[in-house]
Amino acid sequence: MFKEYSFQVLPYFKKSENNKDIEAIDKKYHGVNGPLNVERFSYVDDNVVMLVNAFNETGLPLVDFNGQQQIGTMTAQTTSANGKRVSTNTAFIKPIRKKRTNLTVRTNARVTKILIERYKKTANGVKYIKNNVWYKVYARKEVILSAGALNSPKILMLSGIGPKDVLEALNIFVIKDLKVGHNLQDHVTTNAMLMSLTNKTSTMIPANQIIDQVKEYYKTRNRNHPLSATGPLQLTAFIRTKFADKDESLPDIQVHFDGRNSKEFYSDPTNYLETNVLPFSYYDSINVRPILLVPESKGYLTLNKTHPVFGQPLIYSRFFTVKKDMDTLVAALKSITELKRTKSFREKGVKFIRNTVSACKPYKWGSYKYFACLFTRYTSTIFHPSGTCKMGPSDDLEAVVNPKLEVYGIKHLRVADASIMPRIVRGNTNAPVIMIGEKISDLIKDRWKDCTD
Ligand SMILES: Cc1cc2nc3c(=O)[nH]c(=O)nc-3n(C[C@H](O)[C@H](O)[C@H](O)COP(=O)(O)OP(=O)(O)OC[C@H]3O[C@@H](n4cnc5c(N)ncnc54)[C@H](O)[C@@H]3O)c2cc1C
């Protein structure tokens, strides 16, 4: 059951949503009039059905985890339309781009600094570079920073808002000493646990046939096609380990499955981005990923010391610095490998590959140490960095923005993106970030409603 406070943000999830699935009948939790299309892929392969059935056999129910109950499994509702991903650009910007004369989009422009009047501590614009030419653009009302959880803190620090010691070490004038870049969280997992499929259940086809399928997909716009879906990644499950919070409605692990080519895996697993150069739809094995939803380990990021402006920020994830995080993931992996006992797995001949991977050879497959080794030596995230410009009350020493997303101590400057999450959400981050966008748009309108300028 959702807590009472969730209802403060639920209307903003629903505002953007245009849900086309059967779950849309649940109007308490779903919106149907928003610009963002939400639907399942029409193409579902047999392995997805097998995985759902296997979870059901273990007692995990089929649920709408975007509704009242999160613990359970289903094929995910995605921000897609007709088997094609819908980005925020497609949903929100494209429809108004030529209609709204007060909107200008500058592409390939890199903001390097918020312009702040030092003594009034008021933001009034940004500095950016495009095609090697520097520009300044000024704001009459306020500046909204939405560069994501890695770049928003970087831009704040370059502008003089951040930890005093970091800024002073780089000779950046300190306008406001705040814990920018701290509280970094992500959804951590491993690349190194694989299930093998049989000849009958593998969807792998030779590379030249994949090219033919891609051509067919584009020619016919056939949306009931493997390429209109993401293979087993369209299924997900939310489960609890014995380390989860007392509140039994809350999961501490999300389980993802993504299709792999096992040849690329044996002995030394590659990472997600290296492997998935071919579409997700063609695979002969499945990577199982228990994802830690409630990490207690927190990391931080800071400016690149040699190239603060154009260099990437230095990221210290500090994963597994709290042992409970590792205990939770190992417990989850152990329980997931028990799926091998289900009728669904046995009938299809699906097995966990028990070859020990190269970095973990000293340990016995299935032991705590072996599984812990998979998480530390083949670490992956699912690209959900959050928390680096934390929202919090004024007495929270780590808070960077207040509940209206205004930067503490600076006038006319807000941050609105994944960086403001005080705690990473228990699920994928895209929809929550869109919710943050919907919420701040109301806050901004409310702030300036009496202004005629
Ligand atoms: C490969 C991948 C797959 C993902 N899959 C999913 C998924 O399936 N489901 C899900 O829920 N989430 C997914 N996510 C996560 C989701 O995309 C993010 O949580 C979400 O986009 C974060 O939104 P944001 O606004 O905080 O940051 P972003 O989406 O990163 O937006 C920040 C924007 O700021 C721009 N920017 C950055 N720095 C500057 C600068 N200096 N000057 C000008 N512009 C700048 C960037 O170009 C970008 O457009 C995925 C992420 C990745 C990387």
From TrEMBL:
Gene3D superfamilies: FAD/NAD(P)-binding domain, Glucose Oxidase, domain 3
The keyword Flavoprotein is assigned to this record: yes
Residues in Glucose-methanol-choline oxidoreductase N-terminal domain copies: 148-162
UniProt cross-references to Pfam families, sorted A to Z: GMC_oxred_C, GMC_oxred_N
InterPro entries: FAD/NAD-bd_sf, GMC_OxRdtase, GMC_OxRdtase_N, GMC_OxRtase_C
Alphabetized UniProt keyword annotations: FAD, Flavoprotein
Highest taxon of source: Eukaryota
Residues that, per the record, bind FAD: 111
Keyword Flavoprotein: yes
Example of a GO MF term: flavin adenine dinucleotide binding
Cofactor: FAD
Sequence similarity: Belongs to the GMC oxidoreductase family.
Protein name: Glucose-methanol-choline oxidoreductase N-terminal domain-containing protein
Organism expressing this protein natively: Bombyx mori
